[in-house]
Specification:
about 200 residues, 8 helices, globular, alpha+beta, five-stranded antiparallel sheet, 5 strands
Amino acid sequence: MKINTIENLKNRKSEYILNKDVKVSEDEIIRVVEDSFYYSPSAFNSESSKSVILLGKEHDYLWEEITLNVLKSMISDEEQLKEVEEKISGFKNAYGTVLVFEDIDIVKGLQESFPSYSENFPIWSEQASGMATIIAWTALTELGLGANLQHYNPIIDEKVYEKWDIPRNWKLRSQLVFGNIFEKAGDKEKEDIKERVLVRK
């Protein structure tokens, strides 16, 4: 039996030069993101990871009307602002964004129910978020799309909550930007895996 998991992970990388010319349907994109979060593991089967998929004008609004405007209010240096505008424009040029959240109420409920593990539940919640994200990222790669992961939380959180009527107990953790790969990213140097994975037998 051929296992494709590692090959799929090899193909997944941070792709930044994206556009909206995707060759798959929105229904397919929505399905793989839903499946990624549905089947992703979580501590105590808590299912604390949540997501909101932004497509079309909603995706554009996130980057142009929210993120860029927030950053403009924080940056006074013209040269730095120009660089930021170019960067945010690159995200807007992509096809969509998956907003990744963790449900804090679920975490607090587990802390109350299992006090012996209380300090670990926030950590396990972050691990669940990371697993759901990498599964979605890899699944989008399998559709032939490119993606990159951004972290403009918490500076955009309030406007995101207001714009899309998101429950306040959902804590924004990251933004997975995806689209058609217009120009493929090069390979990155990696540390010798023998230095990172030790074997004892």
